[in-house]
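job 3f2a | input accepted
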Amino acid sequence: MNRFLSQKFRFYTFISISLLLYVHGYNLQDSYLTPFSTVGEPLTCTTFIEYFFANGALRFRIPMLFIISGYIFALQDRKPYQERIKKRFLTLMVPFFIWSAVGLAITYLWQQFPVTAKAVHLAMVDQLGDNRPYKEIGWAGILYRWAVRPVAFHLWFIRSLFIYNVLYPIIKWCVVKYPAIWLALIFLFWHTIYNFWFIEGQGLFFFSFGILLFKRNYPIHKKPVWFSHYLSWLFYIGISIIKTFMAFELDPANVATPFILYALYDISIGAGIIAIWFGADFIVKWCMNKKWFEWAAAFSFIIFALHVPLIHYATQLAFIYWHDFQYYRLLTYVVVPVVIFFFCIGTGAWLRSTFPKVYRVATGGRGF
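job 3f2a | predicted structure (368 res):
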């Protein structure tokens, strides 16, 4: 892997994780977003902007991270499988359990004070739908949330990634032997079953696609001759705008609505990955030559691990204090992710300098 491709991987990992704050910072009335979510609120500047970013233009991030993960894992094929899985357990599952516990601890701490406890209750991020204080839930409920249904729900990503790593020999065989059939089957799985025993369809599809790119030796480090900056960005932004308007205009009771929105969702992901990966090389080169950017990018995993459930609690806390302001939801959507972003980086920098061994274990050795 050449130096520029390595830089692109680090750059887009950091960018994808950072933008995740604006997906999880979405604060409209229906806060649970699916690819085919409609909006049951009037079309306003606030509702349009939030849906456009959270469920439109920024949906390329997780697929891109899975593509990068699949490509890098395939790149290490010369290493023994058992050695790689042992290492991935230390770099994925150990952090999973640590940050799941941190999410529980943050929630418990916020539940101890009236105003922050109200914010936790209003956030309703418990995966089991039980918003009682943890004192009332009991140890059995806490342990189940820690190991299976963490309040830091975004950790599904690293758990699913570990499972794909374990299943890698099977996935690789399918990708190499029957790529078209395999991708078609898991594309169908992604759009029907969604997930099964923590095997999540979208992630499996793009992880497999990353493996295929490596095995076919596709030159992803350079722009293809057919690529047009203008047309790719125009199409990417345009399809995201169309999907956003459709989410307000289509009847959620119409059987065709989910199919239309899902198709637009798929197209926007593909268009976003192509436009952003091939259309910003000059930005990648500029940023990766700046020491401050490389320093900040080292905390990608901390930003990923720590921002949930904090961003949801902070959003509700902002609502409590800012609700008299006319545009409080838009202000919250703009400001809270930035505050959480810098809080995560600051926490990571402090933890790395003060307790480097703890930091190394908690991040799986990332960020040094």
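job 3f2a | The CA atoms of residues 139 and 145 lie 10 Å apart.
job 3f2a | closed
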